[in-house]
Each structure stands twice: as C-alpha cells, then as structure tokens.
Model the fold of this input.
Amino acid sequence: MTPAKESDRQIDAQLLARIATGDEAAFGALYDRFSPGLFSFVLKMTRDEKEAEDVLQEGFAHIWRRATTYDPARSSPFTWAVMILRHKAIDRLRVRQRLDRTIEKATVEFSHFPETDDTSAGEAERRDEGALIRSALVQIPAEQKQAVELAFFSGLTHEQIAEKLGAPLGTIKARIRRGLLKLREFLEEVA
Amino acid sequence: MIDEHRQDLAAEYALDALDPESARAFEAMLANDAELKALADDLRETAAALALDAPAHLPPPELRERILSRIRAEAEAGAPAAPTATAVAPSTEAPVPSGGGRNLLPWALAAGFAITTAALWMERGSLQQDRTALLQEARELRNRDFLAKVKIATLSAQVDAYSKATAVIVWDAEKQHGVVKLNNVPPAGAGKDYQLWVIDPKYPAPVNGGLVPVNAEGIARVSFSPDQPISKADKFAISLEPAGGVPKATGPIVLLGGN
Done:
C-alpha cells in the first residue's frame, strides 16, 4: 500500500527508466517532482538548511548513478528516493549525535517551520498525501506515533529509542510495529 | 497469518533497522514467503509516507543547477565527481599573530611548551588509550563526507593538574560554529570559569569563544560561535578566567592544541 497514486508511480518509474539510460531531461523532471517533498523531509531530519541541501545533492547524485538498480516490484520510485535520502541524512545525524547529544533533544521536538506555498508539478498531489499521513498519525496512540517518528526521522537505533524513552526494547519494537500497521490500515482505507 | 515476531522483523526491515546479518537472514525468509514480503513492502511504503509529514519547504532554486552540473560532470568523467565539500586540512603551524600585544607572550610560550607537555602526556598509559580513542574517532569523522570541511583539534594539557584531561574541538569554518568536548577536567574553582579562545593570525589577540561550563563529573560539551569572524583557526585554547569570562584572555592556559 502506498499513498502515491498509481498514475504518479508510473510516471516516476518511466522517468527513472530514462534516467538509467543517462537521460538528463528525465532527471530534471524527476527532480522537479520529488525535490520539494524530499527537501522538506531532510530538512525535518537535519534541522539545518545547508545540510539539507547537501543531503539533497548527494541523494540525487545517488539516484542518477543508481537508477538502474531501482526495482519497481519492491517499492514505488518515491519510496525508493525517500529511503536513499533518509540513509544519507541518518549518516549525518549519527555523526552529529556522537559529537553532541543535544541533537537528540532536537529530533524529539521536531521543527515547526512556517509552511510555504508549493505549486511544483506533481508535488501538489503529494501535499494532499501529506495531509493524509498527518490525519493518520493523529489517529494512532501517542506513544506509537512517538516511537514511529523517532525510528523514522531521528536516526536513532531501536535500542537508543528504548533508552531515550525509558522503555524496554521489546516494548519499543511493539509500538513501532503496531504504529506502522495502523498507519498502513488507515492509508488503505482512504485509498 | 504472520506472527508478531516476523511482523517485528518486517517493521525493522522496512525502517532499515536490522543489522546487515539480520537483514540478509530476513531477506532469505522473504524469498520463500510471499505474504511476509508483501507485508515488508507495504510497511516500507507506509514508513516512506511519513516523509510527507514534514512542513513544506522548497529547496533554493540554484540547487537544481548545482545538482545538474554535478551529474553532467560525473557523466563526462565517467565516474562520480569529487565531493563538493572542500577538506580543511588541520593546521600544524604555530599561530602567527599579526600584531604584538605583550599579553600574547604567554600564549606563544604555551604553544612551544605544548610539544614538551604532549610528549610527557603520551607516556601515560591509560591516558594514551583515551587519546588514541579520541584520535581514532577524529580520523573516522574526517573520513565522513559530512565532516570533510570541518577541523578537528585535540587539545593538550599545559599544566600538570590537567594531565588527565582530554579535549576535542570540532570547528566548522563555513558556519563559524564549533563544538567543544572536555573530559576529566578539574573544577574551575570559586570565582573562576573556563573560557575558550580561538587563535586566528588575522587578529592580534585570541578571539573569545565563550565560557565552557564543566559539570561535577569534569565533563563539558558546549557549542560555540566566536565573537569575531574566524578566517583561520590555527589553534584553540582554554584558559582559567574570572567568573563570567573576560573579553581578552588574562588567565593561565590549561589546554591548547590545533590539530
């Protein structure tokens, strides 16, 4: 199940197929479709615009080089791109965490940046999907939401999350599992 | 029906939270279990959808062209282009102040004395391990793209009372921001505070980096931004100053280093 519409998924997959052949125009088109959402995402993770720009640049360079490895049977193009950029952002967060544990506080609080208008092609629909995921998140228990968000955005391992929240590791794993399963159910219902 | 243990694994796999060995074992399970694979794929899509929960922000318009230029360069070279970040090599040069205030003399002496002190320090077995671990960490950090443009300095004790202290400073010249980490530092004492200084040859006197509060365990972890723009952070020093700090260094230097 994915919130990405099938038509979007097909367009994105076609662009990735062209990128795999070295088509720069397709790369530019995919950048235009994905970059607003991905930049917002890595900015939420890093809380630093310069770092978010660096992650976006590294991530898209990776997409350019590794487009041939994209497997449409495994995930949508957007999910594939999200996971690439998430890895790169987590690399930076983990280095930072070793230098300054205060970053962990920041990742719990998350940012409250002012919203900006976003009218990029393909991105408006993704904004609607953002509203969907936000409405889904408010419907799961707070402790599950907290565990899922920490697991996804903070770069903390499950063990670190357990330590941070003062809960047994098994409890944290269960919260993450239940939270993800409930999110999946909600997204399937509204699809 | 997928049991909870395998659901847990699927959730961890979706979040890339499994270690490499566990991930390989789980992928072997997926190869023979279509239902489990469908769950793992669904959970990955669900997790990725969380990215859409971020407040909307547009990347700067010029970033598009930077990225396109990079991939063009990679395509022309037939290989990945060099990282855009420029490494700032740790300086091994002594500070060369451009002016000659007499209050700089103790700092210059201290810089020379650091060599002797460092040699003595290196002889201490357990402390050697600390230093080795710190340097190893520093090397690892330097290898990371994220830190390619930052300077990592280890500071050496300048007086015996600080011989057990370890100190590392990470300095990002581009952001004019750094982090200082101290361990095993004695209490500053009544009416005293530790203060950080950045020695930049552009200035005749060390630039104030702010106070470094040390807790009861002798540990400090402080972010800092110097009072003045730093062109070249040759060395960093920590001195003992009157409580609240001073605009110009007056107290004894207790820790000093630049690479």
Observations:
- Chain B has six helices and eight strands.
- Strands of chain B lie at 150-157, 166-172, 177-183, 192-199, 207-211, 220-224, 235-242, 253-257.
